[in-house]
């Protein structure tokens, strides 16, 4: 299937590793020029090298989505180098882990900035041009915690649900302008984030046994779903929070 997005400009934040990098690769493979943004200069430089293998124009912007001025700067730089953003993949690291009595108010602030307002500011920065050009795709990366609260990840449960609310509402407001807004809810995916949460390889393997397909997911299995949602082929998919978890959730709908 030709996804119909060759030549589009994609911006992927948190794009130097894990799910973000995988999404950037899937989009580059489909012919998009890609801007990746993240906080760590070395990993970002490595990501650019990996992405250049797809033969498309690649740009990188060092930025922390928690910085209120970052979104506008990243979007403007992408426009200057690659052109207006057609596809936004709003992604970043996860919020601090912990139960209610383990997370302080500073942690709440980090989570709201990184995982809610960071996304909102990016959408603010790309939306007017997408609407005026009559085409756009916004894909947020949140978590399966939108469907089922995860014990010990209070801040994920709280902030990701807020993003899902933004997605559902915004999708109804801008779908008529050709801008589709969707949300991907990864289950356990083998990235630095999951390794850090699980502690060691044995714990990661055991975690995989809890998933009906018998393993945790690979980043590219999220990246390809993101590319589909960002594509011309997904033209009637709008406002969904799509669980990609190997069948782990027992929630029926
Ligand atoms: P990761 O830690 O492997 O990669 C995170 C990426 O985001 C890196 O490029 C990092 O440099 C960048 N980043 C981190 N904080 C940033 C910030 N403040 N500003 C800009 N860039 C920032 O994480 P991942 O596993 O790829 O997860 C991506 C998202 O998906 C996270 O929000 C995570 O919580 C969520 N998620 C992951 C899993 C999983 O199992 N891996 C499951 C559910 C949800």
TrEMBL record:
<comment type="similarity">
    <text>Belongs to the short-chain dehydrogenases/reductases (SDR) family.</text>
</comment>
<dbReference type="Pfam" id="PF13561">
    <property type="entry name" value="adh_short_C2"/>
</dbReference>
<dbReference type="InterPro" id="IPR036291">
    <property type="entry name" value="NAD(P)-bd_dom_sf"/>
</dbReference>
<dbReference type="InterPro" id="IPR050259">
    <property type="entry name" value="SDR"/>
</dbReference>
<keyword id="KW-0560">Oxidoreductase</keyword>
<dbReference type="InterPro" id="IPR002347">
    <property type="entry name" value="SDR_fam"/>
</dbReference>
<protein>
    <submittedName>
        <fullName>SDR family oxidoreductase</fullName>
    </submittedName>
</protein>
<dbReference type="GO" id="GO:0016491">
    <property type="term" value="F:oxidoreductase activity"/>
</dbReference>
């Amino acid at each position: 299937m030709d996804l119909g997005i060759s030549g589009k400009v994609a911006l992927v934040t948190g794009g130097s590793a894990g799910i973000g990098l995988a999404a950037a690769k899937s989009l580059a493979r489909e012919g998009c020029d890609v801007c990746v943004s993240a906080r760590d200069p070395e990993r970002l430089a490595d990501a650019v090298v990996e992405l250049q293998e797809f033969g498309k124009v690649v740009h990188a912007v060092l930025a922390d989505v928690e910085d209120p001025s970052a979104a506008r700067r990243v979007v403007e730089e992408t426009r200057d180098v690659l052109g207006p953003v057609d596809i936004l993949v709003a992604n970043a690291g996860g919020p601090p882990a912990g139960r209610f009595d383990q997370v302080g108010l500073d942690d709440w602030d980090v989570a709201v900035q990184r995982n809610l307002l960071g996304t909102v500011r990016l959408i603010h920065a790309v939306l007017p041009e997408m609407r005026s050009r009559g085409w756009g795709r916004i894909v947020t990366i949140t978590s399966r915690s939108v469907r089922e609260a995860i014990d010990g990840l209070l801040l994920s449960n709280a902030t990701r649900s807020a993003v899902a609310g933004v997605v559902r509402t915004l999708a109804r407001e801008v779908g008529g302008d050709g801008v589709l807004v969707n949300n991907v809810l990864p289950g356990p995916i083998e990235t630095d984030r999951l390794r850090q949460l699980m502690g060691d390889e044995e714990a990661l393997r055991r975690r995989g046994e809890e998933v009906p397909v018998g393993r945790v997911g690979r980043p590219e299995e999220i990246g390809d779903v993101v590319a589909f949602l960002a594509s011309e082929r997904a033209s009637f998919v709008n406002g969904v929070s799509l669980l990609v978890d190997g069948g782990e959730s027992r929630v029926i709908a």
